[in-house]
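User: tokens in, sequence out, please.
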């Protein structure tokens, strides 16, 4: 049964491998030019057929990017093509392209009201390094698809610059109750990808995977209620300093009684709460796992060390590789998990 304009059309998202394969765009206007550019991005060999090529199509041809035939479409034009687009400004002509492809078993997409009769629709596409994101509303709202794509683009840009972050202060400046309420708001902050909120005997901390943008850090400080404090009333650790801080914290060396062990249980409770509430995921979990692992080495190796600088030197020399591995996994595992 044919779908009405308001009905959702079931689709199967796929990625077509078109490098070096012949593809056709019937039509030579602005829309046809965009379809040709999309095919070129996939490495296809593109032929555009149209009687009155637009400036954009002529520019592609002048650059040697496409083959251009300035004439009306003919049924035999689709022979040997992997994919075709019916992108003329004539609905009857587009239907003719669809029918020619259907007879030859060639995938064809149409840009007008005949799109439901075709084999594919073009999603809103975002490409960032080796990441490709396609967003589709099933043909019902191209504007909505573009809006989602643009929002994802900002998010992915932040992921690519993300690093570990710690913002903390003493209990007098932040209550645990306020921190938990703030956590629900922090989930809405662009640039804050994963986090947990930790309360120990002496301190309250945000441990996070966040964008390195200074404005994001300022927003987080304000959300935590630290905006009006003097700089020496709170502390910020970033990158390896944040990684090192978590390990020292888990070792008990930053506690009122250096070496105490119940800090690990407090950290594990905070991790469990963050995962239950959807605040944290695989990256923060790996960070904390490494912190616990390193803390065991610190407890053993720092038994006779009294200067914190010596402990930090130990961390820097022996465990920098674990930090590097954690950050490298941001691009390979986040945000898909």
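Assistant: Sequence out:
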């Amino acid at each position: 049964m044919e779908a009405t304009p308001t009905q959702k059309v079931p689709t199967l998202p796929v990625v077509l491998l078109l490098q070096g394969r012949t593809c056709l765009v019937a039509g030579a206007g602005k829309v046809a030019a965009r379809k040709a550019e999309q095919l070129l991005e996939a490495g296809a060999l593109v032929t555009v057929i149209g009687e009155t090529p637009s400036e954009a199509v002529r520019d592609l041809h002048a650059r040697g990017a496409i083959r251009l035939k300035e004439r009306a479409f003919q049924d035999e034009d689709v022979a040997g093509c992997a994919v075709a687009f019916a992108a003329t400004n004539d609905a009857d002509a587009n239907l003719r392209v669809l029918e020619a492809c259907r007879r030859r078993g060639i995938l064809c997409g149409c840009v007008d009201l005949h799109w439901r009769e075709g084999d594919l629709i073009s999603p809103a596409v975002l490409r960032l390094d080796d990441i490709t994101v396609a967003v589709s509303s099933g043909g019902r709202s191209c504007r909505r698809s573009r809006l989602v794509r643009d929002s994802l683009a900002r998010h992915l840009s932040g992921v690519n610059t993300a690093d570990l972050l710690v913002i903390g202060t003493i209990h007098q400046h932040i209550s645990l109750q306020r921190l938990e309420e703030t956590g629900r708001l922090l989930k809405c902050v662009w640039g804050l990808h994963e986090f947990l909120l930790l309360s120990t005997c002496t301190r309250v901390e945000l441990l996070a995977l966040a964008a390195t943008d200074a404005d994001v850090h300022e927003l987080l400080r304000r959300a935590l209620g630290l905006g009006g404090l003097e700089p020496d009333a709170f502390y910020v650790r970033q990158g390896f300093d944040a990684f090192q801080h978590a390990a020292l914290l888990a070792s008990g060396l930053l506690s009122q009684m250096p070496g105490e062990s119940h800090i690990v249980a407090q950290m594990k409770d905070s991790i469990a709460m963050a995962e239950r509430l959807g605040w944290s995921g695989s990256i923060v979990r790996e960070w904390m796992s490494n912190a616990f692992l390193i803390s065991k080495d610190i407890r053993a190796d720092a038994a006779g060390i009294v200067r914190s600088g010596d402990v930090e030197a130990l961390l820097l020399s022996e465990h920098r590789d674990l930090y590097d591995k954690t950050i490298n996994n941001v691009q390979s595992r986040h945000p898909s998990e």
